[in-house]
Amino acid sequence: MTPPRILDGKAVAAAVLDECRAEAAALSARGIIPGLAVVLVGEDPASQVYVGSKVRTCGELGFHSRKIELPAHTTQDELLEVVRALNADPAIHGILVQSPPPKHIDEEEIIRAIDPRKDVDGFHPENVAKLALEDPSGFVPCTPAGCMKLLEVSGIDTNGAEAVVIGRSMIVGKPMALLLVSKHSNATVTIAHSRSRDLASICRRADILVAAVGRPEMVKADWVKQGAVVIDVGINRVEDPSKKSGYRLTGDVDYAEVAPKCSAITPVPGGVGPMTIAMLMKNTLQAARQLG
Ligand code: GUN
Fold first, then answer.
1. pTM
2. What pLDDT does residue 169 have?
3. Torsion of Cα atoms, 53 then 73 then 169 then 94, to 10°
4. Distance 41 CA to ligand 1 centre (A)
5. Which of 39, 67, 100, 282 lies at a C-alpha separation of 20 to 30 Å from 200?
6. What's residue 2's pLDDT?
7. What is the Å distance from ligand 1's center to 223 Cα?
């Protein structure tokens, strides 16, 4: 059996970031410094890591960035006020409120309050509609955009392929399905989820299987067709006393058991994760270009 191709998201992301650095320099020469604001409410440790690397990447590319860390007890109105101030700030082209916020926050209302022209997450209803309409002026959510880029750069042909997406979130599953079925991609798409009957047999149909459920190592070898391409979006922390941090990161796919059956697979970490940040930087450049 030939070993699978490991889809190296870190390397592809680095190439995307090189392009972003060059475009940021060109924009800056015209007096436009791309600016991203990242808002974190509360102290979720994983979110703190993600927000930290988003802001750090901005610095590496010559973007302006602002990290706004708010206490967990921040009220809905206080958060809305922060978003409105960022909407009005000409130095900020992109606004991202890290998800999930604390339970008392109505995330829907916060997303709707973001100026859709600055919604670099692509979560605002206007951008969700533009994705469905295949209107390129909208913003595509970063994680599914990163998955598509990884497939494209790796030369994986989605035309006519059977794709199965496990997970129906607005952050990954639904936009991923729309991208796969779009006229650029032309896959035949099934969206499966926790209530799907006989998930394993649905997954076994897939030429391209995208796992975005947030359940560590849920996808097993007998869920995967021989020769399938497997994209693992999960980044789960599982306890591991042998690690200094006390945990290790694992995907939604049981990599050790699934990898030998695949033609290509993304590792965790180093697969989809770095692509998400790279696509956020691309979206921020798009916002800066469009807002001028
Ligand atoms: N939490 C997990 N992924 C994302 C993302 O892409 N954007 C935001 N805002 N929060 C997230």
1. 0.98
2. 98
3. -50
4. 13
5. 100
6. 85
7. 27
Marked catalytic residue, from 115, 121, 207, 232: 121
Atom of ligand 1 nearest to the CA of 96: 9
**How much is the pLDDT for 117?**
99
Mean pLDDT split into 10-residue runs, the chain, 292 residues: 93 98 98 98 97 98 98 98 99 98 98 99 98 98 98 98 98 98 98 97 98 98 98 97 96 98 98 98 98 92
Q: Is-contact 175 131, C-beta < 8 A?
A: yes
SS3 264: strand
The atom of ligand 1 lying closest to the CA of 141 is: 6
CA atoms within 13 A on the CB side of 286: 21
Amino acid symbol at 113 = A
Instruction: Tell the residue number behind the tokens 């206490």, with chain if given.
Output: 71
- H-only helix segments in the chain: 9-29, 45-61, 76-87, 107-113, 125-133, 142-153, 173-181, 199-203, 255-258, 272-291
